[in-house]
Amino acid sequence: MFKYKCLNPIAKVGLDLFSDEYERVEEFAEADAVLVRSASVHDLELPDTLEAIARAGAGVNNIPLDKCAEKGIVVFNTPGANANGVKELVIAGMLLAARDVIGGINWVQKEKENPDITKATEKAKKAFAGNEIEGKTLGIIGLGAIGVKVANAATHLGMNVLGYDPYISVDAAWNLSRSIKHIKKVEDIYSECDYITIHVPLTDGTRQMINQDAIDMMKDDVVVLNFSRDTLVDEDAMLSALENGKVKRYVTDFPNPKVANAKGVLVIPHLGASTEESEDNCAVMAVKELVDYMENGNINNSVNYPSCNMGVCSSVSRVAINHRNVKNMLGQFTNMLAEADVNITNMVNKSKGDYAYTLLDLETGVNKEVIDKLRAVDGVLKVRVIKK
Ligand SMILES: NC(=O)c1ccc[n+]([C@@H]2O[C@H](COP(=O)([O-])OP(=O)(O)OC[C@H]3O[C@@H](n4cnc5c(N)ncnc54)[C@H](O)[C@@H]3O)[C@@H](O)[C@H]2O)c1
Ligand SMILES: O=C(O)[C@H](O)COP(=O)(O)O
């Protein structure tokens, strides 16, 4: 029996994929596996029993990835599963910034008891007029699952699209419309675009990426959209730029006390992935990842451990070892098994950064003594007997 805990509500269609072998628990401390959306895991004490955390979503800055890796806890996310939901809201954000639709709707609410509202509308509407986005230039920083979808959709709306991503994946490049101009220097995005949207993960390298220097390079009346994370933008610099008219609108999906009431900022309450479709997609992908890891030891879409897939075990037993990426680990494991007279029928050893993972299929079962010896190897972080 596996125990799982949901730190946020997770769509039923995903949770229904757990078989009777899984029990939902209320206590984090009891969980073997955890499902989470944006709740912070940083301040939680990670129980020794915890094997895996699946983020039903893209951003993993709410999870202490290294701390988890160090405890042999594999962290997954669900790449692309909510990208369409975000793409649609980014397009909406551009349209809401281009014309004062929200100001107009608020005006109607104020005038709703006015019997002459029809006539008054025709006088008042010029205050809410704006521009069209067709023919304008959109710059996209980060061409991953979301950036690519935004880029392709914007070209269909008649925008000129410039894209910047020095680490673009082959898959993303294949999916990108050929009409998108590949930009090699991010400065060119800043200086050439009427709309700029940022779709990169929050890391120490991207924090405050849109800073005063970046804003200084932008065209007057630029619209900046941030559906990634608030701290990617120096919001003090952004508010000054709105104040002095350099930036026309800042559209953000991340309310905080600084922007919530600031003039010129359109603040959406983190709704990018809050569609039934995205929530379902993320939940299904996250649960499948957890089940495959718990039952087969396979790792798909982990952000702190390497991908590793040996399918379903057809040998007598399978052992999974999470360990540091240092030399001679495999040699020690195979020697120990040979000494115990256990034959290896299949194995995979993969690494990602400082961490590695070894899956071993064995011709016979292994006793506790061998498992304890494997656990005692310097650099081993976790050993799991997947199949006895
Ligand atoms: N508002 C929401 O509800 C919502 C929903 C999903 C994702 N997000 C945020 O959006 C981010 C992106 O999501 P995604 O699904 O597109 O992720 P992704 O991993 O598919 O794409 C991120 C892209 O950013 C690129 N990148 C990284 N550093 C860069 C840099 N310095 N300059 C340019 N490009 C860089 C990567 O190469 C990658 O292609 C997530 O990390 C998350 O923070 C928000
Ligand atoms: O990174 C993400 O996937 C988004 O920010 C969505 O977060 P949510 O699952 O809390 O809506």
Automatic annotation (TrEMBL):
Catalysed reactions listed for this entry: (R)-2-hydroxyglutarate + NAD(+) = 2-oxoglutarate + NADH + H(+); (2R)-3-phosphoglycerate + NAD(+) = 3-phosphooxypyruvate + NADH + H(+)
InterPro entries cross-referenced by the UniProt entry: ACT-like_dom_sf (IPR045865), ACT_dom (IPR002912), D-isomer_2_OHA_DH_cat_dom (IPR006139), D-isomer_DH_CS1 (IPR029752), D-isomer_DH_NAD-bd (IPR006140), NAD(P)-bd_dom_sf (IPR036291)
Organism: Diplocloster agilis
Keyword check for Oxidoreductase: yes
Name of the protein described by the UniProt record: D-3-phosphoglycerate dehydrogenase
Record EC number: 1.1.1.399, 1.1.1.95
Known pathway: Amino-acid biosynthesis; L-serine biosynthesis; L-serine from 3-phospho-D-glycerate: step 1/3
Top-level taxonomic group: Bacteria
Family designation: Belongs to the D-isomer specific 2-hydroxyacid dehydrogenase family.
Native organism taxonomy: Bacteria, Bacillati, Bacillota, Clostridia, Lachnospirales
Residues of the ACT domain: 318-388
Keywords noted in UniProt: NAD, Oxidoreductase
Function, as annotated: Catalyzes the reversible oxidation of 3-phospho-D-glycerate to 3-phosphonooxypyruvate, the first step of the phosphorylated L-serine biosynthesis pathway. Also catalyzes the reversible oxidation of 2-hydroxyglutarate to 2-oxoglutarate.
Gene3D superfamilies per the UniProt record, alphabetical: 3.30.70.260, NAD(P)-binding Rossmann-like Domain (3.40.50.720)
EC class (word): oxidoreductase
Pfam family, one: 2-Hacid_dh
Molecular function terms from GO: NAD binding; phosphoglycerate dehydrogenase activity
